[in-house]
Amino acid sequence: MSVAALILAAGRSTRMGSNKLLEKLHGKPLVRHVAEAAHASIAQPVFVITGHESERVRAALDGLDLRFIHNPDYADGLSTSLKAGVAALPAEVTGVVVLLGDMPLVTSEAINAVIVAYEASPQSIAAVPVYDGEWGNPVLLSRGLFNAVQELEGDAGARKVLALRTSEVLEVPVPNNAVLIDLDTPEALAKARMKVV
User: What does pTM read for this prediction?
Assistant: First the structure.
């Protein structure tokens, strides 16, 4: 089985007021934290979907072995990035872990846990990390869902697809709440910066 990683890094960051992916946390842009975690995981290859300020996002990821896909329709919502990424995956990829560029606290261990659990459960259509009963990110989607993803529109993500088939989604318990924390507001970023790594 081959599971790729897909980092969604195309959004306009309207709630942050500036490009949140380029904001620094502990000396590194948020999106670089995500990319380094994906790169250190067992997911291969690692794709990054760019859109808003794509050149700046690519520059923030310089030196990492990544494959970039530009989404010219990024202003039309999250679904366009997800669709562009899924469409670009090589034929041998059986599943993809979808990471959000504003979730820099997610570790390679969390990514690996989802992949390993999914690979041991071939009947599952997807796998999600769960902390304290709540679904988090990243979400792993099997190739069997790729056609359904192509039907998404607007700002809808994969959750809309999974909501229709929850009994087939594998829940993977994780030990901390990093899978629930996205830094999409100045307040959330300030709170994260106060924590010592």
Answer: 0.92
